[in-house]
Amino acid sequence: MKQSLLYTLFFALLLTSCKKDSERINDQNQTGSSQTIYQEEKSDSLEAKAEEKESIPPAIQENGFYNAFAIPKDKKKRDSLYAIFSKKYTERERYAILALNRLDSKSKWNSDTLVVPVKIDTTLMAYSPFPMQLDVLSDVKKFVVFSYPIQAYAVYSNGTLVKWGPTSMGKKAAQTTRGLMFANWKKKLAISTVKSEWKLPYNFNIHNTHGIGWHQYDLPGYPASHSCLRLLMKDAMWLYNYADTWILNPGGATKKANGTPVLVFGDYPWGKRKPWRNLLNDPNANNISVEEMTNLIQPHVEKMVAEQTNREKVADSIQSAKAMEAKTPIEEPESAN
Fold first, then answer.
1. How far apart are CA 83 and CA 101, in angstroms?
2. Distance (Å, whole) CA 309 – CA 183
3. What is the rounded CA–CA span in Å between residue 259 and residue 261?
4. What values do phi and psi take at 234, rounded to 5?
5. Terminus-to-terminus CA distance in the chain, angstroms?
6. Residue 106 gets which letter from DSSP?
7. pLDDT of 135-177, one tens digit each?
8. What tens digit of pLDDT does each residue of 224-244 get?
9. Which of 61, 63, 62, 59 is CA-nearest to residue 283?
10. Residues with Cβ < 8 Å from 250, sequence gap 6 or more?
11. What pTM does this model have?
């Protein structure tokens, strides 16, 4: 019994000793780990300070189909970022990226974040928020639509999307008129009725009474116009040549036929996140469904087709009259003897 008691005391002392050694080893490991973590944090902090000192711009944050290109407020950092941006992307790619952010080159840093697609399509067609085909427009030869919610326009020919791009529509205090309108007159360089200093290249009027039209002007990344539809220069030129004007009666006092139909719809999310920023979370965030577009357009189809038919008849009549006039011989006056 005494021997058994001695064995018990021996094992108790052994366990106590092992426990103390284990605690001492753990303390040493924890101390070592803490020092390592501290050193790593210190190293990261030093690297961060070095980067800040050298004004190295932030990297693109990858997020699926679209990336976020952060733009710092500091001018030196912005300039440094622009150098990287210009080196990374070609001129056409930069143009496309800015267009997706509703910006022109003049306003390129008028944002704190650029939405950048992983794969750049300089035609923009790969990122179209508008349906590629609308059967409701199959009988309409030319159609232009402007979306207030996503600040973008689209062009359809017999229901097929042929072009889309960014716009800057009327600001909250001077919003663009909604509804169906028709292209009227055009002028390569118009002067604004709001301020005579404002030159409006490739202006195409769509509401003669209100003086609304599309033309080239600054795209700052939000609705900023005095009710007109601002476009990039290339888009303004393209639409200037694409759309048909009205046809006036002799003397120009009355209208004989309407031009290309133009539909403006929706409302902008004033004071909220810019719609194209939502692409970072959902690449389909700005998409307008076929059903929605069909519901918007269907009530106007009959009028658009009727105006289109009328314009074709009037244009044919004018062309025939000119042809007949060209064929009619000019009578020479009789010579006096």
1. 19
2. 15
3. 6
4. -60, -40
5. 168
6. G
7. 999 999 999 999 999 999 999 999 999 999 999 999 999 999 9
8. 999 999 999 999 999 999 999
9. 63
10. none
11. 0.78
Q: CA-to-CA distance for 235 and 308, rounded, in angstroms?
A: 23
Instruction: Please state whether beta strands 212-216 and 199-207 pair in parallel, antiparallel, or not at all (unpaired).
Output: antiparallel
Question: Is 50 exceeded by the pLDDT of residue 333?
Answer: yes
Query: Under a CB-based contact definition with an 8 Å cutoff, are residues 130 and 137 in contact?
Result: no
Residue 296: how many CB atoms within 10 A of its CB?
Answer: 17
Backbone angles phi, psi at 104, to 5 degrees: -105, 175
Phi, psi of 179, rounded to the nearest 5 degrees: 110, -175
What are the residue ranges of helices labelled H in 142-212?
Answer: none
Beta carbons of 155 and 107 less than 8 angstroms apart: no
Paired tokens of 324:
């007949």
Please give the Cα distance from 67 to 291 (Å, whole number): 29
Maximum alpha-carbon separation in the chain:
168
**Percentage, residues of the chain above pLDDT 90:** 64
In 3D space, the residue among 178, 212, 206, 174 whose CA is nearest the CA of residue 193 turns out to be 212
275 CB-near residues (< 8 Å, 6+ apart)? 149, 150, 151, 269, 285, 286
User: Do 203 and 190 contact (CB within 8 A), yes or no?
Assistant: yes
Going by C-alpha positions, the residue among 187, 223, 188, 225 that lies closest to residue 208 is 187
- Note the Cα 265 to chain centre separation in Å: 16
User: Are the C-beta atoms of 214 and 204 separated by less than 8 Å?
Assistant: yes
Tokens of 120: 């750049």
Contact 152, 166 (CB under 8 A): yes
